[in-house]
């Protein structure tokens, strides 16, 4: 049965789909399809001189995560890649913890400012996001290198007397990741604090809570969606970061991102690179799925 | 079909069997359920009902913003269904006013005229006249969001009236105004309607507003029209309990209709003419009855509420509480009745409405 | 919120905020200051001079890379903003089946790690035998610019009173006229800020460009990366400062436009 109403609705839906079509098609062809191809490559045999052997399927690439094929074709347990995974997770966890430690009080500070000052500070928080990360990582090289400004400053203050040799270490990578992702922690926490009803905190004070208790029992629980969102926004991209370990880790402190890049560079192992990328992507999507199920949008301020 | 267009010389809008269903046919939510209405030319017609009753949906169907699932709408005999809103000779005053925020007041008023391709001089003249009509001759150059709520409302009215529509649709147009402004605008709208001679269809959930302004009212509930009539008809002779309950204050008593009246649950008898039999509901307006020693209805005072002009007595009648009697305070003092007193209520037989429901 | 009320002074809040802002801006300030260094070293101060800027301006390779960056960013901005505007208009209105999925796809480039996008795009181009060039860079940039252009436009549309369009139709404006007279003027701040974001993101991108750039199709960030690999130098300081200042100017401008149009 067709009513005038259904015909009108259908016509309008058609028009809306037509408007969305160019962008959707672009993303389907140049984003989703490549991801599909990447998955296929991950289950192909690696070519002898780079590239892949089309039509020859194998799970060799995924096996490569843990095992290495010896000269006589036996599988030998290999911890090289595991170490890189472990380091990636560990550095990302430390980065997330550091971001939380600095980011939460900063967000609280922002939320408590007058509107004028708050807008300016928020703008300052977002500016680095729009500037070139490569360039900012380079700036850290200037600061951290032997005899760089951090060394000079500390020696000038009499805290140290020799160079620290910070650059090209895990510490340099953590500093770089922290620097890159701090705003990603501050903004979501600020957003949930800004929406918060501060009279609740006043009620807590009224009921005899001191500042610490008000923070622990009222503010932190209410800011929890922001804290979780911020942690995901920091943890996930630092796991796959390429630039920071490349520049500040100096190729010694490899993370997953660098390992993937290597497969398309000197190692010429596309299936392994594709498999690593696919694993990383699956992890990201899984994390987002868990997040969206547990923290449905629109229930900000709710409990986890 | 076709009868209304040939005979109905002054029927501005005739609506036949109009239904509207959201979702799939047969299983969606019915916003309108086979509604038929005739609205006369030059009439101030009000659609009255609680929120969700379908009154705004009906208005939007007339304007053309929504398409019906079934039924027809005719404007002076012309079927409207194939015309998009921008080809219908009707204009709307939106609830939120919907003034264009990036244009001045004058540009807002001129918009419809420009779209119809009127000449610049004609447009300028009309804009000036409209601003005078709504008594805001000096705000033409200002931006819409610099005006107060009451002023925005007048501009929205001017913008719609500038096009001299055959029918003007007003969607809860006064609900955002405060009490005082609202009373003024009620009078002003009525004046504008008689000055311009345009048919007004006014949507509201405020029964007092509807009674004050309308020539005729359609009371709606759950997608249906329950009753159409003048304010007096609607108030004095509601067709069922829902209408009686929605318009003004009403006491309802469960009763059984017998040969010469009705029997209440405790055996009290009220005499009233009528040939109904069986279970009925008796509706009695609180201001139509009075406390009197010779009254025929017995009750017990539960509460006495002084409201300035009146005193309202809440009585327990026939075992049910909350029967209200509204007495005017003509002598400026409380009468002697106290909570717990047994009293008698005088009920003129004209004040008794027997409803089958 | 009264900030002077001691009730709201939580311990450690102010020092953390200070640390945060110093940490965030110290490297940028140091870099820009060192770019005016007259000496031969990248970090040892040798007096104020604009010498490295003139070296950069006269370096044919840098100029070519900058030109490439500008061409790609301009085209990517135009294309992605047009696609995003159309999509935002299509996504407006009553939700339909599959709309959530479609918004998900529009936001996908923000979700997928950059390195994954980079290598999958590279494999895709290799699969369809498309030679890497400025053109492949452009395609990749259009893709990841779409969500950046889309989000502000969509937000602007969502904040728009839906009755305005009905009012326009009620006042005899056809859908086409209603779009140009009502929707577009009200939407334009969103389109401008979306386009600006797309431009900055395209100008700044390194990881994806690095993978899909063919020989000779070097953009500025790719050039900077290969220079850094050969060691830090005062010349890189100067190029980097130029890029930083351009980005910051752009963001400040878009912030200013947004504030004014409020």
Automatic annotation (TrEMBL), chain A:
<feature type="transmembrane region" description="Helical">
    <location>
        <begin position="119"/>
        <end position="139"/>
    </location>
</feature>
<comment type="similarity">
    <text>Belongs to the binding-protein-dependent transport system permease family. CysTW subfamily.</text>
</comment>
<feature type="domain" description="ABC transmembrane type-1">
    <location>
        <begin position="85"/>
        <end position="291"/>
    </location>
</feature>
<keyword id="KW-0812">Transmembrane</keyword>
<dbReference type="InterPro" id="IPR035906">
    <property type="entry name" value="MetI-like_sf"/>
</dbReference>
<dbReference type="Pfam" id="PF00528">
    <property type="entry name" value="BPD_transp_1"/>
</dbReference>
<protein>
    <submittedName>
        <fullName>ABC transporter permease</fullName>
    </submittedName>
</protein>
<feature type="transmembrane region" description="Helical">
    <location>
        <begin position="21"/>
        <end position="44"/>
    </location>
</feature>
<feature type="transmembrane region" description="Helical">
    <location>
        <begin position="272"/>
        <end position="291"/>
    </location>
</feature>
<feature type="transmembrane region" description="Helical">
    <location>
        <begin position="172"/>
        <end position="190"/>
    </location>
</feature>
<keyword id="KW-0813">Transport</keyword>
<feature type="transmembrane region" description="Helical">
    <location>
        <begin position="89"/>
        <end position="112"/>
    </location>
</feature>
<keyword id="KW-0472">Membrane</keyword>
<dbReference type="InterPro" id="IPR000515">
    <property type="entry name" value="MetI-like"/>
</dbReference>
<feature type="transmembrane region" description="Helical">
    <location>
        <begin position="218"/>
        <end position="244"/>
    </location>
</feature>
UniProtKB/TrEMBL annotation, chain B:
<dbReference type="InterPro" id="IPR005893">
    <property type="entry name" value="PotA-like"/>
</dbReference>
<keyword id="KW-0067">ATP-binding</keyword>
<dbReference type="GO" id="GO:0043190">
    <property type="term" value="C:ATP-binding cassette (ABC) transporter complex"/>
</dbReference>
<dbReference type="GO" id="GO:0016887">
    <property type="term" value="F:ATP hydrolysis activity"/>
</dbReference>
<dbReference type="InterPro" id="IPR013611">
    <property type="entry name" value="Transp-assoc_OB_typ2"/>
</dbReference>
<dbReference type="GO" id="GO:0015594">
    <property type="term" value="F:ABC-type putrescine transporter activity"/>
</dbReference>
<keyword id="KW-0813">Transport</keyword>
<dbReference type="InterPro" id="IPR017871">
    <property type="entry name" value="ABC_transporter-like_CS"/>
</dbReference>
<feature type="domain" description="ABC transporter">
    <location>
        <begin position="13"/>
        <end position="247"/>
    </location>
</feature>
<protein>
    <recommendedName>
        <fullName>Spermidine/putrescine import ATP-binding protein PotA</fullName>
        <ecNumber>7.6.2.11</ecNumber>
    </recommendedName>
</protein>
<dbReference type="Pfam" id="PF00005">
    <property type="entry name" value="ABC_tran"/>
</dbReference>
<keyword id="KW-1278">Translocase</keyword>
<dbReference type="InterPro" id="IPR003593">
    <property type="entry name" value="AAA+_ATPase"/>
</dbReference>
<dbReference type="InterPro" id="IPR027417">
    <property type="entry name" value="P-loop_NTPase"/>
</dbReference>
<keyword id="KW-0547">Nucleotide-binding</keyword>
UniProtKB/TrEMBL annotation, chain C:
<comment type="similarity">
    <text>Belongs to the binding-protein-dependent transport system permease family. CysTW subfamily.</text>
</comment>
<keyword id="KW-0812">Transmembrane</keyword>
<dbReference type="GO" id="GO:0005886">
    <property type="term" value="C:plasma membrane"/>
</dbReference>
<dbReference type="Pfam" id="PF00528">
    <property type="entry name" value="BPD_transp_1"/>
</dbReference>
<dbReference type="InterPro" id="IPR035906">
    <property type="entry name" value="MetI-like_sf"/>
</dbReference>
<feature type="transmembrane region" description="Helical">
    <location>
        <begin position="101"/>
        <end position="128"/>
    </location>
</feature>
<keyword id="KW-0813">Transport</keyword>
<feature type="transmembrane region" description="Helical">
    <location>
        <begin position="207"/>
        <end position="226"/>
    </location>
</feature>
<keyword id="KW-1133">Transmembrane helix</keyword>
<dbReference type="GO" id="GO:0055085">
    <property type="term" value="P:transmembrane transport"/>
</dbReference>
<feature type="transmembrane region" description="Helical">
    <location>
        <begin position="70"/>
        <end position="89"/>
    </location>
</feature>
<feature type="transmembrane region" description="Helical">
    <location>
        <begin position="238"/>
        <end position="257"/>
    </location>
</feature>
<keyword id="KW-0997">Cell inner membrane</keyword>
<comment type="function">
    <text>Required for the activity of the bacterial periplasmic transport system of putrescine and spermidine.</text>
</comment>
<dbReference type="InterPro" id="IPR000515">
    <property type="entry name" value="MetI-like"/>
</dbReference>
């Amino acid at each position: 049965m067709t009513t005038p109403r259904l015909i009108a609705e259908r016509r309008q839906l058609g028009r809306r789909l037509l408007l969305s079509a160019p962008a959707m098609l672009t993303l389907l062809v140049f984003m989703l399809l490549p991801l599909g191809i990447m998955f296929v490559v991950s289950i192909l045999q690696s070519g002898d001189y780079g590239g892949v052997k089309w039509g020859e399927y194998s799970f060799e690439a995924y096996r490569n995560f843990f095992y290495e094929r010896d000269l006589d074709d036996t599988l030998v347990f290999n911890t090289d890649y595991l170490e890189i995974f472990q380091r990636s997770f560990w550095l990302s966890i430390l980065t997330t913890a550091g971001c939380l430690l600095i980011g939460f009080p900063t967000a609280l500070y922002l939320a408590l400012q007058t509107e004028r000052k708050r807008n300016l500070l928020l703008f300052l928080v977002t500016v680095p996001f729009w500037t070139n990360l490569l360039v900012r990582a380079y700036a850290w090289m200037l600061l951290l290198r032997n005899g760089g400004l951090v060394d000079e400053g500390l020696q000038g203050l009499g805290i140290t007397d020799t160079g620290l040799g910070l650059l090209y270490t895990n510490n340099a990578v953590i500093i770089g990741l922290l620097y890159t992702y701090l705003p990603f922690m501050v903004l979501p926490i600020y957003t949930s604090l800004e929406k918060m009803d501060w009279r609740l905190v006043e009620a807590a004070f009224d009921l005899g809570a001191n500042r610490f208790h008000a923070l622990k029992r009222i503010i932190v629980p209410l800011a929890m969606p922001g804290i979780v969102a911020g942690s995901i926004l920091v943890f996930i991209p630092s796991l796959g970061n390429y630039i920071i370990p490349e520049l500040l880790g100096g190729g010694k402190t490899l993370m997953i991102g660098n390992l993937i890049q290597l497969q398309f560079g000197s190692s010429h192992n596309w299936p392994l690179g594709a498999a690593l990328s696919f694993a990383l992507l699956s992890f990201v999507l899984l994390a987002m799925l868990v997040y969206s199920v547990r923290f449905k949008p629109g229930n900000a301020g709710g409990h986890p | 079909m076709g009868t209304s267009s040939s005979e109905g010389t002054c029927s501005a809008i005739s609506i036949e069997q109009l239904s509207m269903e959201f979702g799939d046919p047969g299983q969606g939510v019915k916003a309108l359920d086979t509604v038929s209405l005739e609205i006369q030319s030059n009439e101030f017609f009000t659609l009255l009902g609680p929120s969700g009753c379908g009154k705004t949906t009906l208005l939007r169907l007339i304007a053309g913003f929504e398409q019906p699932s079934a039924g027809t709408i005719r404007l002076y005999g012309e079927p409207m269904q194939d015309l998009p809103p921008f080809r219908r000779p009707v204009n709307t005053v939106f609830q939120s006013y919907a003034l264009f925020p990036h244009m001045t007041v004058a540009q807002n008023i001129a918009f419809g005229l420009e779209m119809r391709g009127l000449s610049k001089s004609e447009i300028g003249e009309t804009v000036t006249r409209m601003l005078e009509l709504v008594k805001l001759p000096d705000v033409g150059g200002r931006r819409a969001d610099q005006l107060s709520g009451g002023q925005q409302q007048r501009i929205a009215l001017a913008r719609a009236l500038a096009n001299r529509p055959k029918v003007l649709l007003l969607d809860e147009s006064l609900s955002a105004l405060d009490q005082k402004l609202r009373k003024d605008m009620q009078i002003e709208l009525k004046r504008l309607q008689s000055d311009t001679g345009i048919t007004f269809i006014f949507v509201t959930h405020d029964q007092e507003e509807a009674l004050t302004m309308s020539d005729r009212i359609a009371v709606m509930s759950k997608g249906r029209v329950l009753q159409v009539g003048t304010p007096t008809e609607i108030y004095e002779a509601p067709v069922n309990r829902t209408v009686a309950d929605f318009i003004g204050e009403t006491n309802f008593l469960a009763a059984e209709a017998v040969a010469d009246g009705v029997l209440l649950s405790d055996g009290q008898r009220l005499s009233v003419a009528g040939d109904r039999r069986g279970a009925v509901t008796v509706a009695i307006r609180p201001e139509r009855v009075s406390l009197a020693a010779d009254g025929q209805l017995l009750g017990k005072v539960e509460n006495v509420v002084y409201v300035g002009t009146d005193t309202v007595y809440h009585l327990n009648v026939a075992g049910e509480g909350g029967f209200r009697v509204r007495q005017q305070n003509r002598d400026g003092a409380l009468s002697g009745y106290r909570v717990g007193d047994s009293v008698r209520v005088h009920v003129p037989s004209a004040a008794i409405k027997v409803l089958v429901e | 919120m009264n900030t002077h009320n001691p009730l709201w002074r939580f311990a450690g809040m102010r020092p953390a905020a200070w640390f945060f802002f110093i940490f965030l801006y110290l490297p940028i300030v140091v870099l820009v200051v060192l770019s005016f260094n007259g000496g031969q070293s990248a970090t040892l101060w040798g007096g104020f001079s604009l010498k490295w800027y003139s070296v950069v301006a006269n370096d044919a390779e840098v100029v070519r890379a900058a030109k490439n960056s500008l061409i790609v960013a301009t085209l990517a901005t135009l294309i992605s903003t047009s696609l995003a505007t159309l999509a935002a208009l299509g996504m407006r209105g009553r939700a339909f089946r599959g709309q959530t999925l479609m918004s998900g796809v529009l936001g996908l480039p923000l979700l997928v790690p950059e390195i994954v996008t980079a290598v999958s795009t590279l494999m895709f181009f290799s699969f369809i035998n498309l030679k890497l060039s400025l053109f492949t860079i452009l395609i990749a940039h259009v893709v990841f610019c779409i969500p950046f252009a889309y989000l502000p436009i969509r937000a602007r549309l969502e904040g728009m009173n839906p009755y305005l369009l009905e009012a326009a139709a009620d006042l005899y404006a056809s859908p086409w006229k209603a779009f140009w007279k009502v929707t577009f003027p009200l939407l334009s701040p969103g389109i401008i800020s979306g386009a600006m974001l797309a431009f900055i993101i395209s100008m700044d991108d390194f990881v994806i460009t690095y993978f899909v750039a063919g020989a000779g199709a070097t953009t500025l960030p790719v050039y900077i990366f290969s220079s850094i690999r050969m060691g830090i130098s005062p010349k890189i300081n100067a190029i980097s400062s130029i890029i930083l200042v351009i980005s910051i100017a752009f963001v400040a401008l878009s912030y200013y436009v947004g504030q004014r149009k409020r």
